[in-house]
Structures are given as structure tokens and as C-alpha cells.
Amino acid sequence: MTDSASAAPASPPLSRGQMASGVLAATVAVLAGLYSLRDFLPALAWAVVIAIGVWPLYRRLHHRWPKHGRWLLPGLVIVAIVIVLVLPLLMIAVPAFRDAHEAQRWIEQWRVSGVAPPPFLQQLPYGAQLTELWRNNLGQPGALGKMPGASHVKVLELGRYFGAAALRRLVTVVFMLLALFFVLRDAESLSEQLRTASRRAIGPAGERVALQVVRAVQGTVNGVVLVGLAEGLILGVAYWIAGVPHPALFGLVTALLAMVPLGAALAIALAGLVLVIAGNLAAAAVVIVFGLVVTFVADHFIRPALIGGATRLPFLWVLLGILGGVRTWGLVGLFVGPALLSVLILLWREYVGREPGPVNPADQTVTAATGGD
Predict the structure, then answer these.
(1) Domain final position from 146, 163, 191
(2) Bigger pLDDT: 268 vs 312
(3) According to DSSP H, which parts of the chain are helical?
């Protein structure tokens, strides 16, 4: 029997109806799969973002120890992420849960006997009037219980709500770490599959667009994480000098919140409020002013420079990408927003002839290559 006889018969070409049915079936399957995974998509998105962010370092480690790329190196990355990101969150959450019972006892005591006016009110302008106003509205027995949301039942409901939210976040983090392990372990295979899929879907432009997305995510990781940690370190020292209680913990909270636009301002305001309650108004003013200056410079100059330097995005588009991404996609939008805008800017530059590329019109490609004239 010859090779031609033993070969399988060629499949007949698909008709237009069959192709349309195939596309429809594939679309339904993809949408159904995404709907089934909807609760785990944030964890998968975070895993991809973190994998892209740590990939340059991970690739160097993998080239040095190629035999450990399947289990040991991905496991070490997971352990490092737990130490760097998860443990600080636990350092904040554990004291908060530990003090929750004591806070509930204080609230119950204040609800029954009233809240005494704090001493710092006397140091403010119109201090006597503010103290009297406080005493008349909050200092009377049962006054706190009359305020909206201050009842014992509502406080317990609020505690249960935050407990459930914390549990959901914990589950997301666990699945994110699990997905990150497998993404790093099979990174080479996954990247080759994505390159093949992009070439088949949108041609030569696919790999260029994917590279731009990777650069944007890596630049955003550097701009968000590194700048946030630097803000926390600088302001932590400022808290220590100003006499804020637990300055290291406040600095850690500031670093975490600084990764979110305008988040550091909340930590700075809380530190200033603690100093005001302690009666140190001058130190509170210095901390607030210095903190706002640091965050303004970091958010409007340093962070956009790091992100824009990697993606060549103008400052305005970096800022809009971060804010719009958070508004639309949540925290993962910190990285999705600049990545999407960097792709749009790349396609626009190719289309108008400022850069050569697959979507660049032929006549303007020549003009761009020759420099005009």
C-alpha cells in the first residue's frame, strides 16, 4: 500500500454557512467560559500582571538555574510575594481584628454614658463654643446612640460586612498565587502560544501590540509599586520625627495606599488626625503639608515619568490611564488602563505615519522612513 493510499482523505472546504456556524459556536463557548470564570477573573488578571512585572528578574534566574524552572523558581517567587505583599497586610489586619472587641466596648460605653470632649478642641479657634457644642450633642448619655448608624446592631453588621469582604479578598489572593505559580512555570509555552494566536488573529501587528502591552504593564508595576514603597518610607520617617504613634505601621499603610491614586492622602489625613487628637497641632499641620507635597510630586511627576518612559506615553495619557483604569476595572485597572492607552497610542502613531508598522499607510510609511520632503 502506497503512502498516498494510506494518507487520510483531505477534508472538504467549509462553506460560508459552516464557517459562520463555527464562529458563532466558538464565540458562545468563549463567552460561556468567561461567564463561568467570572468570579476568578480578577485573580487571573492579577496573576498575569504580577508575572509580567517580575518576568525580567525571573528570566535571569531561569537562565542561571534552568533545571529548577518547573517547581523551585516559581515556588520561590510565590514565597517572596507572600513575604513582600501579604505579610504587611496581615500586620495591619491582625491588630485591627485584635482591637475590634476593645473598640466595640468603647462604643458601647460611649453610647451609654456619652463621649467627653477631646482636649484639643480647647486649642482651636472658638474652642469654648466647640467644646460646649460637643458636650451638648455627644456628651449626654445616649446621644451617640441617636446618631445614624451608631447603634450596637449596625456596628455588628458593619463588622460582619468587613469580615466577609476580607474573606473574599483572601480567597482571591490564594487563587492569584496559585495561578501565578502555573503562569511562571509554563511562561515560555504560554508566550509562544499567544504569539501564534496573535499572528493568526491580527497578523504581524499582533506581536508588536503584545510587546507594547508588556512594556506598559512593566512600567506601571515599577511606577506604582516602587513609587508607593518610596512614599511610605519617606513619610514613615516624617511620622517618626513628628511623633505619630506606631510610625512604621503608618508608613506601611501609606505605602500600600500610595499604590492607589489619592490613596496616600487618606493615610496622611489619618496620621494628622492622630496628632490633632494628641494635641500636637503644629506637627499635624507639618505632616499634612509635607505629605501632600510628597504625594503630589510622586503622583504627577515621578510615577508618570516611569510609566511614560517605558511606553512613551505623554503625561496626560498616563494620568488618565491610571485614573480611568481604576474607575473602570478596580485596582487591577492601575495596570490595565495604561496598557490599553499605550496600545491605542501605538496604533495611532502607526496610522498617522509617525512610526512604521502594519497599520501604517504605505505612502506615509515611506514618508516616515525618508524623514519627509
Answers:
(1) 191
(2) 268
(3) 3-6, 16-36, 41-64, 72-81, 87-113, 127-137, 152-185, 187-202, 205-221, 227-242, 247-258, 263-277, 281-297, 303-311, 315-329, 333-351, 362-370
